[in-house]
Amino acid sequence: MPKPLIGISTYHEESARWGAWQQPAALVPLNYPEYFRRAGALTVLLPPDEPDAAVETVERLDAVVIAGGPDVRPQRYGAQPHPRSGPHNDARDLWEIALIEAALASNTPLLAICRGMQLLNVVLGGTLIQHLPDVVGHGEHSGSPGAMAAHVVEPIPGTLFGSLGVEAYEVPTFHHQAVDRLGNGLVVCARARDGIVEAVEAPNEKFVLGVQWHPEAGRDTRVADALVAAARRPHLVPAQRPETLHAAAVADTSSPVA
């Protein structure tokens, strides 16, 4: 059986250095493709592109991964920026929104990691907590520069994530934002012990899972195994799909509201 092809969105870095060169680059930590290759997939990186290229891109893939990264611009969910919000990258926001929309419309398996889960929630009309310490009173989710934090997540029985055989376990994490109001069609499938949403899924879809932590930075492969298994199954485009895209998410915010 051919290995499924998984596309992974990338970071846009204005100044990346290698050898004698320092140039703009599209990149992602190596542990992302390695994580899915260990589960039996082929991987391809998806640098930021024009949003109208997303449908044709996703048509060539068996699954899509939206990688972690910087904060989603708050105007995309109708909020004013918190002093700790940012940096923001509008080109990346719009490209990954288009990838999410294309994956949902084509019933292509979708895994959204950290920022990716937050963006998935926003695309479906949800909102975000912009700075977790304001809500939970601690910084245990965010670690320190260059080092992941670790905390326990607790799966919710009866959900896709709960069915992976995962019990409460420690995960690598690095984030200061999280899901607030849940997006349309999503359900919570795991929480941290302080109540913060740690995973969401869309139970009526083939495979739509968002995790707030970084599974690619840990040893547990069950999330990758589940995505690869879903990617191996044929997917049928639904004959009719309700409109779920949140209009504010795709609005041009290159000149943000003050």
Automatic annotation (TrEMBL):
Record keyword Hydrolase present: yes
Domain of life: Bacteria
One GO cellular component term noted in the UniProt record for this chain: cytosol
Any Pfam family matching the protein: Peptidase_C26
Keywords: Hydrolase
GO biological process: polyamine catabolic process
Record-level Gene Ontology MF annotations: gamma-glutamyl-gamma-aminobutyrate hydrolase activity
Protein name as annotated: Gamma-glutamyl-gamma-aminobutyrate hydrolase
Keyword flag Transmembrane: no
